[in-house]
Specification:
By secondary structure, this protein is mostly beta strands. The chain has four helices and 48 strands. The chain has a 23-stranded mixed sheet, with no helix packed on it. A seven-stranded mixed sheet has the order 1-6-8-10-12-14-16. A hairpin with a 6-residue loop joins β2 and β3. The N and C termini lie far apart (120 Å).
Amino acid sequence: MGFAILWFLAVITLIAGCESSKSMEKTCHSNDLKGLLSFKTGILIDTSGRLRQWSGRDCCKWEGIACDKTSGRVIEMSLPGFSTSRDSPVQAWMNGSLSSSITLLSFLEVIDLSGLSSLRGNLPPSIDIHLPGLKKLSLWGNSMDGPVPESIGKLSKLEELYLFENSFSGSLPGSLGNLSRLRKLNLHSNRFLGGVPATITNLINLESLSLHSNFLTGNIPDDIGNLQVLKELDLSCNLFTGKIPSSITNLKAISVLYLDNNHLVGEIPKLSSRDQMASLAFLRLNDNSLTGSIPESLGYLSSLQRISLANNELHGSIPGSLGNLRSLTEIYFNGNKLSGRIPDSIGRLSELIMFRISHNMIEGSLPHQMASLANLQTLDVSFNQMSLSSIPKWLLELPSLSRIYLARCSIHGGLSEDLLTTPSPVQELDLSANHLTGSLPEWIGSLIELYALNLSMNALDGRIPNSITKLGTLGLLDLHSNKLTGSIEPIFLVQSKYSGGSLVFIDLSDNNFTSGMEKIGTETQLEIHHINLSRNELRGKLPESIGRLQSMESLDLSTNSFDSDIPATLANASSLKSLKLQKNHFTGKIPNGFLNLKNLKELDLSDNFLEGRIPYGKPLNNFPRKSYAGNKGLCGIPLDPCRP
């Protein structure tokens, strides 16, 4: 009996313990729980399924939530759209609104709701009062809008702020300059207006500042050089004006400097010593209105790997000090007013991969020292005042060269057969605007990795060789303004290795071609976007198969001798934006299906033998009279009314 009593007492004790354990089950602070559940309620779709698992009252165990071990309060809310699962990238998205009740989680240090795509809402105006301990706020890659409140400057512990790729608008608050602990400030790809507040230069701990792709105006702050630990500065793709501040050379830690695509003027600031900007690796100043010469002190930037000064108004010569930059891999100086010769020192840039100096006034020939550029893949010296006479043999022996642009370099004679024996197969070749003569050689079909071929504006004659059908990767073909004759059929019979074909752009205008249109759209080349066959001697019927080119955006067959009806199937080319058929002998009516060409912005059917009523409706009635002029039988809007 004594044993039974002991057993009974043990059971009672166990039950009491279990009940006590249940009563001590952890629960969230009421404000934290309310804030999180309000956030969950605001989300209509969560493709990750994470919010579906938010149940019970112990929110510290919920996925994406972390709590302080002492206080039990929620300190981190991390539900990014991009994550990894079993070492594979996973992307999730949420559709809904960011509840303002998130501010109830007053102990939050980290908010990461980035990359969720369809998360809407704005930043609470009183964010500073409710989230005073916030260290990281990451809302990038969403559909957030509205202004950044002035109160954000009171988040004294904030170290990282990522709001890029949203629709935030308004001015950048000057209070940002109060965030003394801020290390990362990334607001790019929004709709911000106005200037960059001068207070930004107070952020002495800032390592990364990215404001690109907004609508920011005014000058770059004069004291930008105060940011001594700044490693990345990207102000590109805005509307900044004025000069580049001279203090920018004081950015000791800078590695990435992008000021391109603005309206900056004046000269490029000069460096006074090798210690300045010693870590700068990537420099983009292209697409501005910069003047003056390229500073000789550019040679101090010993860490420089990539430089773009393209599309400015720079003059003078390319400095020889460029040869000191042994880490340089890419040079873009195209689209300026540079003169003189290419310096011999370029040959010392053993890591150089890309060299683009087209559309300048560079003279002379290619320095033989460039024969040592074993890593050079792309050379573009087109449209200068260079005189090469022929392609240097040593150039075609460079081990890595595959993209060759030598347009308007005074090259004479026929195509060099040395192009067949280059160590790296030629992928892009531009010899346009030279003095090439003779016919297209049959061996052209052996350049089987050729993607782009531009031999326009020369004096080539003869027929297109059938071997061109072997160029299975050919995407761009420009032979305009030569003396070529015969059939264009081989172009449409190129046997592509890609479904839908490889050709995207064809320009055979200003030649003497007479036939070959019957093969258009009959084989594999169905993804052509742009076709220009104008000013030839093409005649006969435009085939029904042309309607198979549903990706075609522009078609120019003007100034030929086509003498058929316009095929109704052409209306199937629904991507057409520009259609030019003027100065032919087209007959019959304009197909009613042309009313379905909703993307059509340019139309010219003038000077043919078309007749009947112009189909009524958009877009055909929106074009001016000149689009239909010279067709005596046409009537209807925008021409004169048809007779009963």
